[in-house]
Amino acid sequence: MSTLFKLLLLLTVLMTASVDSFCQLAIQNIQCIPQPVYRYRADGKPGREVLIQFSGDKLLQKAKAELSGKGFKESTEIVPSATGDTVATVLLPGGVGVEKETLVTINLNVGKTKIKKSFIVSPMRYWTIYLYNHSHVDIGYTNTHKNVEILHKTNVLEGIKLAEETRHFPEGARFKWNPEVTWPVERLWNTQPQQREKIIRAIKDDRLSIDASYLNLNTSVCADEELFHAFKFSRKLQQLSGTPIDVFQQFDIPGISWGIVPVLAQQGIRYVIAWPNTDRAGNAHKNIDRFPFWWLGPDGKSKVLFFQPGSYANSGSMNKGGATGRPWFGQRDPLKVPAVIKTGSANVNFTDKLVQMEKEKYPYDFMALSWSLWDNNPIDADIPYAVKDWNEKYAYPKIIISGGREIMQYIETNYGEQLPVVKGDYTEYWTDGLGTAAGLTAMNRNSKERLIQAEKLWTMLNPHRSIPREEFDEAWRYIALGSEHT
User: Fold this and answer.
1) Which of 239, 244, 385, 406 is the most exposed place for a label (fewest CB within 10 A)?
2) Helix (H) or strand (E) holding 402
């Protein structure tokens, strides 16, 4: 054996021994941090993710982790990357850490090094997050009425287009657009009649989710007859599509007049979802946010299922809206407003909210959030892709892009029988805006009284002539715009 070969052999042995010695010495301790998410285990069950942080140095070779606790014991192999890792993840057995606090012990074997650690896993349920995609409809505020109309009509068409684009996505990630109210759809219906078939098809295919009200109204100033007219166009779409439109959504306005309940019941509308502006809501959202109940009408028999998830939009969507520079905000040239907003990402990690709800011992296993980049904003076209990526990575919390009806049916099916029945007025808080336009508010009030009288007189004095329904309906449409919250 040559001298050179002997030297090389000796060097190889020394290097191997050094690496083995290094690995034994490098991993001095570990810290185990349970995460509020579940990943997909090899056995198909959701497994709670635990981060293992190595102190001393990187993990450079395979390690064996033995996990044990009350009623379970299993081993898993940790394979580091080529350059070594300072953090690794393991998944707990299915069912561990879901309903109750659990003590888990890990025995980590790295070469000849053995480390034992015990840690507490706080409970984290299998949460479902319903994500309601919309653009808050303010007819005014950010732009002229005309430009706001153009933007929201574009949203309807782009929403249908994005839903078609993502129709092959896994369930939950398929996009659907919620116009909030029927005003954008009605404007599109009347100004671009060639789009009518597309609209009805999208409603039938559950790609365009329609809610019942024409506008976000100050219900406290609406006449009785006016409330019925608020649902006229949605009744038409319901009939043409054969799809139930039975959710009354109210955005921005804290409070809804009690008189709406019997009107909803008579219109076949079974659900109410309220998303108030909590910055201006006073105490309107206190103690009822996220707690559904049956709202009994003043007639003592009409009843709707009421749910107030909290404020519309959330920090993730509003932060993204702000980061874009809001190119739609105040832009007087509609050609300069992008058809959609697409940056390549959307932060759909809502686990911080769920952790807080676990601490508060929230009694239900779902959360509903709205996703709106601001007010009168274009669609966020990144959302279905972000949700798809999230759901492929995590088993829970599971995100479902949804309409209002899915949220309310889930509540009714799973919790309806145990919910309390509440009666009384949800006194509207947002009436200061009416005071800033007192003269116009009075004009609108007088106009609707004249219109009510005109309809009655026509019927009495012209029994053989049909009422000019289109003209009366258009008058009611303008009166509704006078009661709109912006």
Assistant:
1) 239
2) strand 398-402
Instruction: Please list, in sequence order, all residues whose beta carbon lies within 8 angstroms of the beta carbon of residue 56, skipping any fewer than 6 positions away.
Output: 25, 26, 27, 28, 29
Pairing of β 379-380 and β 340-341? parallel
Rounded CA-CA distance 16/309 in Å is: 60
Place of tokens 């715009």: 481
Tell me the pLDDT tens digit for each residue of 317-365.
999 999 999 999 999 999 999 999 999 999 999 999 999 999 999 999 9
Instruction: Note if the pTM is more than 0.90.
Output: yes
Beta bridge pairs of residue 398: 128
Residue whose token pair is 């805006």: 433
Residue 47 in contact with residue 76, Cβ under 8 Å?
A: no
What is the Cα–Cα distance from 247 to 6, expressed in whole angstroms?
A: 83
Average pLDDT over residues 282-286: 72
Closest by CA to 126, choosing from 209, 233, 45, 185, is: 45
Q: Residue 352 and residue 119: Cα distance in Å, rounded? A: 21
What gap in Å lies between CA 356 and CA 91, rounded to an integer?
A: 22
Distance CA 444, CA 478 (A): 9
Residues 193, 194, 199, 200: what is their CA dihedral angle, to the nearest 10 degrees?
Answer: 90
Characterise 140 by phi-psi region: left (phi > 0), alpha (psi -120 to 50), beta (else). Answer: left
Tell me the C-alpha distance between 128 and 399, whole Å: 6
By the 8 A CB rule, do 302 and 261 touch? yes
Neighbours of 102 (CB within 10 A): 21
Whole-number Cα distances in Å, 140 to 32, 214, 334, 395, 437 = 52, 16, 14, 42, 14
User: In angstroms, what CA-CA distances link 92 with 53, 103, 107, 293?
Assistant: 16, 12, 13, 36
Contact yes or no for 261/297 (Cβ under 8 A): yes
> Which three-class secondary structure state does DSSP give residue 236?
helix
**Dihedral of the alpha carbons of 394, 400, 401, 404, in degrees to the nearest 10:** -160
Residue 437 C-alpha from the chain's centroid: 34
**How far is CA 451 from each of CA 48, 435, 465, rounded to the nearest angstrom?**
62, 23, 18
Count Cα neighbours of 257 within 13 Å in the Cβ-side half-sphere. Answer: 15
> Among 305, 255, 247, which residue's Cα sits nearest to residue 276?
255
Biggest distance spanned by C-alpha atoms of the chain: 123
Task: Over range 469-473, report the average pLDDT.
Answer: 95
Please state the φ and ψ torsions of residue 106, each to the nearest 5 degrees: -120, 130
The token pair that represents 28 in the structure block: 């001095």
Going by their DSSP bridges, the two strands 102-110 and 379-380 should be labelled as: unpaired
